[in-house]
Amino acid sequence: MIEFGPQLIGQVEKTLGALLESVLRDSNISEREWVTLRIAAQNTNGPAGLSAVVSDRARFADAEQIIGGLAEKGLLDGDALTMRGREFLEQTGARISRLTAPIWGGLPTADVEAATRVLNEVLDRGRVVASSAESS
User: Fold this and answer.
1) Domain residue ranges of the chain, discontinuous segments joined by +
2) Which of 16, 45, 51, 69 is 20 to 30 Å from 62 at the Cα level?
3) Over the stretch 8-18, which tens digit does the pLDDT of each residue have?
4) pTM (2 decimals)?
């Protein structure tokens, strides 16, 4: 068993990333584009715009290029998902849910709640450290 920390989180991320790549393989959409579409779907861009939110949340320096590519593919119009983009997210999300159901199924609710709290705290702290490192 791997202790909680960067190695465990990294291995989980790599494993889930490989599963995502297997779903996206035939779609002509990269993992970075998928993340950008998911952020666009959350519709929390506000006045900053999608590019700024993607740059901040996903740490993609090339957010504008990713957004432009998604617009060329007909999945985004400006900062908003197109109907085709929404359908792609819905269908692909359903495929991901089916594939990963055995991973999440049956986990004790209290453990899931604790993991959610801890991982969100790690994420918040990581963002603070990343912002500090960028301004140094």
Assistant:
1) 6-105, 107-136
2) 16
3) 999 999 999 99
4) 0.84
